[in-house]
Amino acid sequence: MGVIGFCIHYAIALVILNKEIKPSVGMLYPRESETREVRSLDGLWNFVKSDPTNPTQGVRDRWFADDLSRVQETIPMPVPASYNDITTENELRDHVGTVWYDRKFFVPRSWADKQRVWLRFGSVHYEAFVYINGEMVVRHEMGHLPFEAEITNFLKFGEENRITVMCDNALIQTTVPQGKITEVSRDNGVAIVQTYSFDFFNYAGIHRSVHLYTTPLTYIEEMEITTDLSKDNNVGLVYYKVKTNGTAANEAENNLYVRIQLRNKEGKIVANETSNSDLKGVLEVQKVMPWWPYLMHPEPGYLYQMEVFLHGVNNVLHDVYRIKVGIRTLRWNNTSFTINSKPVYFRGFGRHEDSDIRGKGLDLALMTRDFNLLKWIGANAYRTSHYPYSEESMQFADENGIMIIDECPSVDTENFKQELLDKHKSSMEQLIHRDRNHPSVVMWSIANEPRTNQLNAGSYFQYVANYTRELDPSRPVTAAIAVPSSDDKAAKYLDIISFNRYNGWYSNSGRLDMITKRVIDEATTWFKKHNKPVIMSEYGADTVEGLHLLPSYVWSEEYQTELFSRHFRAFDTLRKESWFIGEFVWNFADFKTAQTVTRVGGNKKGIFTRNRQPKAVAHLLRQRYFALGREVDQCNFPEDLFTYIADVRPSRNAKHDTTDL
């Protein structure tokens, strides 16, 4: 290729177009009602690992056409769970490529009568190919997000059926997140090696629950709910849009309508309405109980239950669906973020869905423990770093009044090309489609630590940010940025500036005297450059549980405690400026990473251990978060916040001033 030809090819490669993204359809969370049944397929499945050097063998040899046990030796594998840490084999832990699952299930004869049957996965990482009785029914790319398919015509009613899933965990430069796969020579041949720059383990498998559920032939397919408050928060407005599908919807859409009822926590109907054929409207709630974050109100996380009844010709009842609704309003400008017209100061965490043995598999016991710890420590928010968390955790956040910065799976994004942009936008579309009705979701995060200093980063993130606003203008857009503000090309397209910085750890390790001023200066620089609210979305230090060193030294619990204290000083200075609106610790708990010599069993920046026990700094952070809650939100202190020391009374001759406090 000549110089001119190279230049033309290079220029074409740099062109990024804002293409249309295929919208998600359906995906309501499976709930039983008068017209719907739900069955779980969770449990022990049969499992086969493919040869990493021959990942498509199972497709070519049609493993999906029969029981896996007839073509390969299988092992039991729990669903939901990551498969990596279940066995004692490092070949499975570090496997790259495809794996296969299957199991048998019965479908009752009654399900064949005038209804549809759906198969829904909460999440499979990273790409899934799903077969029913040997026929492919759905393919989905993107971990951490749900997908479904109607399988009515693939089932044998009143008989045994087989479901087969091929899961591929390979990450390349056009997946979200990105990775690279290489062949590396080893003692007895060649190894297929997956590498990635993000700092958490690439767990894989069927991570969340698998459900069968039924709907009537004519059914409620989607619901979109937005809320507002008026008259000094005394009147709530609930706007709804319902989308239907099915036989009657196709033949006579004008004959369909919905009847909506809204019940309070006591079960009393506080608002109701019957729609026109456009299936949308607004409910007005008098003496409303707004949805408030934890510690901002004596009754946080107040939820109403919306009941939706779909009727057709002659008022025939087709379908019933129920969903929880929190009534609140969000506002933001260049110096503040408010909920229900009250300024918010975020105090929370970056987290991970991660635990021993289960990996990223849904674990309701662990999830419940985590929310108890969040409330124990006085946090009011967290970011779903660095991917969407389970739907069950989003529901838990709604109920507990924990605000969520909802992040898509884009992490360490680089090499900004067209195919990557299309998938990145698709990940945001799927995330917003899934989570738009959650009152706990107060912000969308479009990336974590993207390489926003690179060529094309500006136009790339302009497209992603604008697309996110098109999908949902009711919430601000942010991203956690790690490049210096002088090099960044993306922040100008955001509504809220979030930045990650590890002063005293990655920068100037061990220097506690090089933290406070640097945090203040960087936050101020971001605000002066963009005139937008600023959050410090990550700070912290790796800490080995039980390591105590005096004077403090890196990796010790003393060092983590002092490092946090130096950040607190910076935050308190910044809080005097209204534009600084939040502080997020990295991380809530220790978590697993890829093997490196800088990670002893994983990332140890958690204030809790991986099994959710507190390090010393957790008690300090708890005192700070509740102190902030008392100052900002007028909450009460827990009785056990401060440990009794002594009843010391000053002597008559002692002199004190305010610095003694």
TrEMBL record:
EC number of this enzyme: 3.2.1.31
Which GO BP terms sit in this record? carbohydrate metabolic process; glucuronoside catabolic process
Glycoside hydrolase family 2 immunoglobulin-like beta-sandwich domain mapped to chain residues:
218-328
Q: Where is the Glycosyl hydrolases family 2 sugar binding domain?
A: 38-216
* Compartments (UniProt record): Lysosome
User: Among the entry's GO cellular component annotations, what is one?
Assistant: lysosome
Q: Name any one Pfam family assigned in the record.
A: Glyco_hydro_2_C
A GO term for molecular function: beta-glucuronidase activity
Q: What keywords would UniProt list here?
A: Glycoprotein, Glycosidase, Hydrolase, Lysosome, Signal
Regulation of activity: what does the record state? Answer: Inhibited by L-aspartic acid.
- InterPro entries (alphabetical): Beta-gal/glucu_dom_sf, Galactose-bd-like_sf, GH, Glyco_hydro_2, Glyco_hydro_2_AS, Glyco_hydro_2_cat, Glyco_hydro_2_CS, Glyco_hydro_2_N
Q: Where is the Glycoside hydrolase family 2 catalytic domain?
A: 334-626
Main localization (coarse): other
Which PROSITE patterns does the record cross-reference, listed alphabetically? GLYCOSYL_HYDROL_F2_1, GLYCOSYL_HYDROL_F2_2
Q: Which catalytic reaction applies to this protein?
A: a beta-D-glucuronoside + H2O = D-glucuronate + an alcohol
Classification via PANTHER family: BETA-GLUCURONIDASE (PTHR10066)
Quaternary assembly = Homotetramer.
Briefly state the protein's biological role: Plays an important role in the degradation of dermatan and keratan sulfates.
The UniProt family comment states: Belongs to the glycosyl hydrolase 2 family.
Name of protein:
Beta-glucuronidase
Organism of derivation:
Stomoxys calcitrans
